[in-house]
Design a protein that fits this description.
The chain is α+β, with helices and mostly antiparallel strands. Helices cover 20% and strands 34% of the residues. The chain contains nine helices and 18 strands. Strands 6, 9, 10, 11, 14, 15, 16, 17 and 18 form a nine-stranded antiparallel beta sheet that branches. Helix 1 runs antiparallel to helix 2 and helix 6 packs parallel to helix 7. The longest helix has 18 residues, at 260-277.
């Protein structure tokens, strides 16, 4: 490369490259099949990768050495790295430690690809291993998700519970007059295909010319059930989620929402459904003339085929108590705080928006089969750069929602219900069903 001894004004705007040379660090999630721990060489975890673009890849992972980390991070002193890896009281676990504990689900941070061996296994070295779960029965879920972490607070003289849960977007489908009922039924089903309990909600999105104009959440209705309390020796009343048929019937009946905002959203959904089916415009529950005019416009847009409508099936998965406490304590860490997108608002305020990104969670299950999270992490090492608002999520970019399940028969039918389980019989959760009744960025209506 040569340099000039004269001034060149074009070089004032020239950018220097700061791109990292070599492989980029990744976060790996691994189902361990075996461990290799020879006495005269590196120790490896061997298994299958899950989550992200490398899903299903056969991999072998060892831990980064002190010298390699010093080369990776020349800004960090070598004695600090040695303390992290070897000498500190809470130093990094070894691969041998994981083998002795029988760990089968591991997350590796700052993993770098080394080579692809002749045996077909891609080799990585990683800065730090994290146990996803020590329970052999633990399961993994992955997909576009939001992690919600809010400390307990006081509001209007009342204590508001802490919130710690994951919202997983499980599938979506474009809907029309022939499949909208089935899509809503599947999205709001309180049981999965294995008849295990779930805490569902549906998101109805409306598009015009590929731009989202509305995203309304529909949550299950709730009803009272009697259960026998073993400690008290008598029946007592608890609140449980209603099945999908009850929720949809309530929605279509024009039942008033818990707030004007909620009523407006439900009016929009009913108007759009009627339009898609070619039915008469439904009576609206909202009384505001401006809202009625807007809902009428949605009705005609759907009826005339000018609007596209999508139904997203989502599930709210609470953290277990111990895990929730840990994640609430760590909520300011970059990989967790990134799930709330912060932007400058009017009058020097900060606008906060729910963000979604490819996420892996480890779950255990309550006696009725409902999952609770013990681990959650974005797939991306730096998720802030890839976090997506609901409004920016392209239509039909999620996995296709299958509406052909046996659970989806007809909206007027009865969905099998799980046996009601009193909260004390399950591991308590930090967030209660129905607490998260909000739209991502307002209804856009």
């Amino acid at each position: 490369m040569t340099t000039s001894n004269t001034f060149d004004p074009k070089k004032l705007a020239q950018r220097t490259s700061n791109k990292q040379q070599g492989p980029r660090p990744e976060r790996l999630f691994m189902q361990v099949d075996s461990y290799e721990t020879p006495a005269d060489g590196f120790h490896y975890a061997v298994g299958t990768r899950f989550g992200g673009a490398g899903e299903g890849e056969a991999i072998r992972v060892r831990l980064t050495t002190v010298a390699e980390r010093v080369a990776d991070r020349p800004d960090v002193k070598a004695d600090k790295i040695e303390g992290q890896y070897i000498s500190d009281s809470n130093h990094r676990d070894t691969i041998s430690d994981k083998k002795k504990a029988g760990i089968r689900l591991i997350s590796f941070d700052d993993a770098l690809k080394v080579t692809k061996g002749e045996d077909g296994l891609t080799e990585y070295r990683a800065h730090w291993p994290k146990v996803i779960s020590t329970d052999p029965s633990a399961e993994i879920m992955s997909g576009m998700a939001h992690i919600k972490l809010v400390d307990a607070t006081e509001f209007d003289g009342k204590r508001v519970k802490a919130k710690a849960y994951v919202e997983m977007l499980q599938g979506a489908t474009a809907v029309n007059g022939t499949n909208v009922d089935e899509a809503l039924f599947k999205a709001l089903s309180i049981r999965d295909e294995a008849s295990r309990a779930r805490d569902p909600f549906a998101i109805v999105r409306v598009f015009h010319e590929a731009k989202q104009f509305a995203a309304v959440r529909i949550y299950p209705e709730r009803e009272a059930k009697q259960v026998f309390d073993q400690a008290r020796g008598e029946n007592r009343e608890i609140s449980v989620k209603s099945d999908a048929a009850v929720t949809i019937a309530s929605l279509l009946s024009g039942k008033e929402g818990f707030s004007d905002f909620d009523t407006q959203g439900k009016d929009m959904v009913r108007a759009v459904i009627a339009g898609l089916k070619g039915e008469e415009q439904p009576a609206l529950t909202s009384t505001d003339p401006a809202v009625i005019e807007k809902m009428t416009n949605y009705y005609w847009g759907a009826k005339e085929g000018q609007l596209e409508v999508e139904v997203i099936a989502a599930e709210k998965i609470d953290f277990g108590v111990d895990s929730g406490m840990t994640y609430l304590k760590d909520k300011a860490r970059p990989h967790l705080s990134a799930y709330t997108i912060e932007e400058p608002g009017a009058n020097d305020t900060v606008k906060r928006t729910v963000g979604f990104v490819e996420t892996v969670i480890g779950v255990h299950r309550h006696p009725d089969g409902e999952p609770y999270a013990v681990f959650a992490s974005p797939v991306a090492l730096w998720p802030k750069n890839t976090m997506t608002k609901m409004a920016e999520l392209p239509m039909e970019s999620l996995p296709k929602l299958d509406v052909s399940s046996e659970l989806v028969s007809e909206v007027g039918g009865e969905e099998p219900q799980p046996e009601p389980v009193a909260q004390e019989q399950q591991e308590p959760a930090l967030a209660e069903a129905g607490e998260n009744r909000y739209d991502d960025e307002g209804p856009g209506m």
